[in-house]
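Table S2 (text version). Query chain:
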Amino acid sequence: MRPPRCVVVCTRGFDSICLKFAAETLKKPEAYISVNYIYSEHLTFNGTFDPALLLHITSLDNINPAANTEYSKAFFAFFKEKLGVPDNRGYITFYDPGRENLGYQSTTFGPIFGKK
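Corresponding structure-token output:
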């Protein structure tokens, strides 16, 4: 018998909660946070279909080994509390593409924020 899957019934409600949490955790304005929760019954992790997650964080100027450890701790605790996914059932990928490589408002963040 397979364990129950965790499914968020109201994804917009969860997306809003997740957006606020991400903005606070990453110390970024909500205007620069995007959340897309996609439930997949086909996601496997460690050979099982037990609840799991894949999280991709793209952020400018605040991705580094020390910060990533703190972000990882915070996000895994959040998903454990909200979705019941333990910290050994997922991966978080941290990525900083650089200001010149992230488009926004018909330009990139290079001209918006200036060169780093």
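Notes on Table S2: Residues 58 and 95 are 5 Å apart (CA to CA). The chain has a mean pLDDT of 90.
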